[in-house]
Amino acid sequence: MQAKSTGRTVTETARRAQIIDAAIRVIADVGLARATFTRIARSAGLSSTGLISYHFADRAELLDATVERVLADFSAFVLARPDDGSARGALIAFCESNVDFMGAHPDHMSVLMQVRADLAGDADLRRRDTRELAELLRRGRSEGVFGEIDPMLTAGFILSMRDGLIRDIGQSADVPACRRAYVAATLSIVEGK
To answer: How many Å apart are CA 1 and CA 23, to the nearest integer?
Structure first.
């Protein structure tokens, strides 16, 4: 049986996921520099590093697939957070879910920090996130709940705060305090308070 649109069998897709899960654990545990195929294979319960090489051409491809998976998990978590239907509620849900993901998935965040040290440097991802958030801010302005803000510029500020949290939250065990601070700062910017 083929997995949807990848050309891989269900078994191959499952094995790749198993290897990526192990890569996330190993990078978080011993660091990117020490995350060897041997360690990853051991963590995945594989008998040989050859199984990794069969599924990934090289270390770079495995790291790319790992980051892709982390970002997909991050996006799914953020987008799944319900809100009250208002732009303000959606913005609060966005902020809270970003911080909650960081607290719930520290290994994922470790991978992002180590493999993509400069998240803002990923231009395509940054542009997409900025456009989507700016659209939400435009909606809030049209609903009359946000002040006279430049949606694109303000979206950039909000995402820069988020990226700072990604770098710093590992040093703070107080995720609820980080969530409150991020929401308060974001609302202060968009509401002009």
So the answer is: 26
What is the tally of structural domains in the chain?
Answer: 2
pTM of the predicted protein model: 0.81
Helices (H), 81-122: 87-104, 106-115
Task: Note whether 94 and 133 are same-domain residues.
Answer: yes
pLDDT (tens digit per residue) in 90-130? 999 999 999 999 889 989 988 887 876 644 446 777 788 89
Q: Residue 132's domain is classified under what CATH number?
A: 1.10.357.10
Assigned token pair, 137: 């801010």
Residues 6 or more apart whose CB falls under 8 angstroms from that of 117 comprise none
Same domain, 87 and 124: yes
- For residue 108, give the nearest of 66, 154, 159 by alpha carbon: 66
